[in-house]
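Example with several molecule types.
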Amino acid sequence: MANHHIDIHHVAKLARLKLSDSEAATYTLQLDHILDYIAALDQHDLDAAMPTAHAEAVFDVWRHDEPRPSFTNEQSLANAPKKSQGQFQMPRVVEE
Amino acid sequence: MPRYITTIGLEVHAQLNTRSKMFCPCAVEYGAEPNTRTCPVCLGLPGALPVLNLAAIEKTILTGLMLDCRTPDISKWDRKNYFYPDMPKNYQLTQFDQPLCIGGGVPLYELSYPKDAQKTIKNPGKVVKLTRIHLEEDVGKSTHTGAGTLLDFNRAGTPLMEIVSDPDLETAEEAFAYLNSLRQILIYGGVSEADMEKGQMRCDVNISVRPEEQKELGAKIELKNLNSVSAVRRAIHHEVARQTECLERGEKLVQSTRRWDDDRGETQLMRTKEDAHDYRYFPDPDLLPIHTSPILERMRVHKPELPHEKCARFVQDYAVSAYDANVLASEKPLANWFEQAVAADTKVPAKKIANWVINELLGHLNASNATLADSKVTPQALNQLVADVELGKISNNQAKEVFEEMFATGETPVTIIKQKGFEQVSDSGAIEKLCDEVIAANPAKVAEFKAGNDKVLNWMTGQIMKSSSGKANPKVVGDVLRGKLG
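Resulting structure tokens for the full complex:
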């Protein structure tokens, strides 16, 4: 198995996950396996393959610019743990 | 003392004026009750699927055409991953490596510079190079209160163009001109209202200062929270001075993001490179790529005549000065108004009409804090007024009085001239009678004229203007007097 140098703690931080040491070891191993699987592609000659942006060769799926009715304020906030003044309320965030 | 070079790049976000959002059919509407223009897609509810808004793609491609960009054949959308409450999916749908527009540039118009800097433009005719324009979604609006942060997602999902310039600007004044010119062009194309005060256009500034002898760019420092074009100018002036002072003291500048505080007139550190985001872009599997060529071809016919093109045509076709043409072309409705006024009767010199539009119409609009849309004066009425002056029916000063009235009431010049009794007597029979009287009453003056003193004619004309209570057409009077005195 190739060593993919996964910085598991960085990845966990980006996903806002707190991992114990044993969890970190488990996931490092699992992610290594996934990357091995992807690396299998390296064994094939892909020079003639065109890069694609999507698994399906389908393009140009869109809608026309026509507004449709939205949620009511009550519907929008139905799942909100906390609300105030018709808005979602959350702990104060400072940055940006 | 070493000299320093400033390098500036701008990232502008401009909301497109579509009727519905970028990835869902909620209406785009400013000022609606909070969270009433929302749906599962723009609230980021699990399982909701986005669908592209074709009009937003068209408007972005049109913007690319106006700014001379290239559009790649295939364009796609990507996820930009980060956690922030105004973005409930925890990723923003944006474009990473295949944006809708690449390259191009924004011309800096002379009148787009700050008024006090228009006489000292360092690089006249400069076109600021663009890196790219991509199409993404706006985020929700947060309000910070003592009790916590409140979120309204009405704005979330509004189509947003991010227009990224190269580090191609040198001064705060160029940045100021860039934003004004860009805004003018976006409005011309009908793609965005681009009002910074309303948040329809927002701007981040990347700025770096380095000693002249240093080749590579200095540390990139990003400025945020710039809410007007003049705030951008102030912030850059402050930041250039601050960075220069740091370098003079021998300090090392580090890549960082700073917030502009317009009240205090200074920037404050928000974060340094160590805390820079790692966005882990990847193609969005819920959206499919698009072929751009058919859209590009379709949009070509919608490309408007741009401000600088209009300006050149006005100089060429109407013989107005470059400055006047710039003023007239600065806003499309004004340019149209002017052209309608000229077209109402093409015998009236366009240059004269331009003067009236710029000096009187714009002057009165500014003085009364009104816009062209509020004007009671029609293009046809102005043409008539200028025609009357040209034909000598009324004097220039009288015309100004008439205009005053037209502006206040919307009455036609004909009516106002009648009301004010300004109608000049051009009927030569009546004028001849007045001339005969003056000649008969002033034999000494007649002798002076015959001896070669031409100025006497003005004096006599003045007498006749008096005896006709200003109604006689001075040009006709002069002609008649000359004829009589031989």
